Amino acid sequence: MRLNAFLARAGVASRRKADELIKAGKVTVNDAPGELNTFVERTDVVRVDGRKVGKSALRHVLLVKPRGTIATASDPRGRPTVVDLVRGEIRVVPVGRLDRDTTGVLLLTNDGPLAHRLSHPRYGIEKVYVADVEGEPGDEALAALATGLELEDGRTAPAGVRLLGPSQIELTLHEGRNRQVRRMLEAVGHPVVRLRRSRYAGLPAGRLRAGDWRELTRDEVRRLRQLVGLS
Ligand code: URA
Fold first, then answer.
1. Helix axis angle, 218-227 relative to 112-119, nearest 10°?
2. Closest residue to atom 3 of ligand 1, CA basis
3. Which atom of ligand 1 sits closest to the CA of residue 179?
4. What topology does CATH give the domain 3-53?
5. pLDDT of 158-209, one tens digit each?
């Protein structure tokens, strides 16, 4: 794999930052200076500032994403990302996306196969959202959300819908299309005012407040693996 991908996977830095380390001459491969186009194999010895880079341990983190942060590994415009919020030696990246203005439960990990399956539509991982909306949705709107409605990228699958207040809806989805909740609610005439994800794959925020995070327990990781057939 390419040297920057190796460094990112080992938890050293994002690919972009890894490129900067390489350009700054801080990375060696088998004691020769690493280049941007260097490819590395398992058997190669990679060092950053002279320190050997090993395969890092797996890490799984649950974060309650605050409003205004970007849910990607790095932002080309340098805006704060969710990765900046999680301290620790082992770098983790978000599983799937949440919009910049969406808050709530987000999983971050360096466990590639698990992340891949959790975000793959085939596994239909459950996501629960609470949306404050404009107006007061009636039976017709709620029924359309529940049975499925036409969006520009196709019809939505049946969803769980619960009215929590006159202008507050809980939606349970097994899909994860771009801005799906916002587009669904817009389509029924009740645009989102505020959006929070309250559960992801059965994991609730619990006592965590916006910006807080914690490591998943061994049992939680085991359950996630079972959910996607990786146990
Ligand atoms: N649906 C949205 O519209 N936004 C999110 O952040 C997540 C789901």
1. 50
2. 179
3. 3
4. 3.10.290
5. 999 999 999 999 999 999 999 999 999 999 999 999 999 999 999 999 999 9
